[in-house]
# Entry
Amino acid sequence: MTVATPTGSGLGGRGNPREGSGVNSAVRGAGLVGLAVVLGIVLLQVIDKGPAGNGATPAATSKATTPPSSSAAPASSQPATTAKNGNARARGEVRVVVFNAGSASGAAANMTNKLRTLGYQLIQPANTNARRGTAVQCKQGFEKEAAQLQGDVGAGTTVEPIPNPPPAGTENVNCAVLLGQ
# Structure
């Protein structure tokens, strides 16, 4: 003999579509709130390091633009950056390579991941000749981006013009970060 119970009669069982829905809604709600909190933290980190700059950025900009203005060729590249109302290009428009130039093993990969989370376009990190100190080197026309990248890499980073001829591995990038000893 089979007893049929109407749906929603409160007897439960697998036939009741409302069984456990309160728990599922609570779990989904908590997950959604957690996701919103994480997203908020990430966005605040990106905004805090945005192009508004800090005390070091304007000083670095003046250092970065001083060497190019001493020759005739770089002066022609200056209007390209001022055409953007004096602001640096968005990080997503700047292609970067990170070189380990005598730093600890894995440092270039770690810096690559850090800069990628900030929005830069990065290629595979590589090794180069050892040097002292950390530097940012950008091609002509990327002086403001060099200053922004300098702040993103961290304290103690200097801005240098990219050598001529450019080092191997920089053919398809705008800037290079060299992590020295």
Remarks:
- The longest strand covers residues 95-101.
- The first helix runs from residue 21 to 48.
- The beta strands are 95-101, 121-122, 126-127, 134-138, 158-161, 175-180.
